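Pilot study result, target chain (91 residues):
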Amino acid sequence: MDFLVQIQVNFPPDIPADKLADVLEHELIRGRELKEAGTIVKIWRIPGRRANIGIWRGADADEIHQAIVSLPAFPWIDARVTALATHPIEA
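Predicted structure:
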């Protein structure tokens, strides 16, 4: 099942630089793992924001939820997940 996943990351302005660098490094590693596993099908960043939008694939919404909470930046993430269904003109 495919999902449209919109993520906005809201780090606090006072997060220590070393903590931010560590989270971002591990976020990239975890994102690559999800991409290689086929969970993240396609992803785009939103210019000028710490945000992205992507097509994620999983058996159900619970699987997508588990993938999102596995992200190191999860404590600061506002995620919006929309299940996608095939449109009749695509069938």
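One observation from the pilot: The beta strands are 2-9, 40-45, 51-57, 77-83. A full batch analysis is planned for the follow-on phase.
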